[in-house]
């Protein structure tokens, strides 16, 4: 059951040497740090990867809500999120995020689900908060 606005979220970060332990209420702890491109350990979740995880999860959950309202049953949903980090006039920044969504629906729902997916991308809270456009590249297949 949704709760009234405003909603509040909290993540606790505790530094442990060169790593960060991220926790929030009863969620599993996430161990993060710098990505290998900046000298970090490959086994750790980087802020860059966590940002992509946030955007792709937000689009998916928004999509699920809209698909349920439209009564569109969804088979497979898979998203590969890719980002480009580059030098900009304001310093290092992401210049592009692409979400490559592959999903499977009934043949009769292919056209409708494309529209719902675009609505989910438009209404994603996380990508709307970012200071760059989030692109969506989707593949929809009939089951």
SSE topology sketch:
Elements: E1 12-16, E2 19-23, E3 30-32, H1 47-69, E4 77-88, E5 91-105, H2 110-123, H3 125-129, E6 134-142
Parallel strand pairs: 5-6
Antiparallel strand pairs: 1-2, 2-3, 4-5
Describe the fold and architecture:
This protein has 143 residues and is an alpha+beta fold. The protein has 2 domains: 1-45; 47-142, GMP Synthetase, Chain A, domain 3. It has 3 helices and 6 strands. It has a 3-stranded antiparallel β-sheet with strand order 1-2-3, with no helix packed on it. Strand 4 and strand 5 (91-105) form a beta hairpin. Helix 1 (47-69) packs across helix 2 (110-123). The two termini are 31 Å apart. 17% of the residues are buried. The mean pLDDT is 94.
The succession of helices and strands, N to C, reads EEEHEEHHE
**Termini gap:** 31 Å
Determine and state the CATH class of the largest domain: Alpha Beta
What share of residues is helical? 25-40%
- The poorly predicted ranges are none
Biggest pleated sheet = 3 strands, antiparallel
- So how many helices? 3
* Number of beta strands: 6
| Strand order, largest beta sheet | 1-2-3
Alpha-beta content class: alpha+beta
- CATH topology title of the largest domain: GMP Synthetase, Chain A, domain 3
């Amino acid at each position: 059951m949704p709760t009234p606005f405003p909603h509040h979220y909290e993540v606790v970060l505790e530094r442990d040497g060169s790593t960060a332990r991220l926790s929030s209420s009863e969620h599993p702890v996430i161990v993060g740090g710098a990505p290998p491109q900046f000298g970090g350990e490959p086994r750790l979740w980087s802020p860059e990867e966590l940002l992509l995880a946030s955007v792709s999860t937000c689009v998916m959950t928004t999509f699920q809500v809209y698909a349920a309202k439209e009564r569109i049953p969804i088979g497979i949903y898979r998203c590969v999120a890719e980002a480009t980090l580059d030098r900009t006039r304001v310093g290092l920044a992401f210049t592009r995020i692409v979400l490559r969504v592959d999903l499977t629906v009934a043949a009769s729902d292919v056209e409708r689900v494309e529209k719902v997916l675009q609505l989910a991308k438009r209404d994603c809270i996380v990508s709307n908060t970012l200071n760059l456009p989030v692109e969506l590249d989707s593949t929809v297949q009939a089951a």
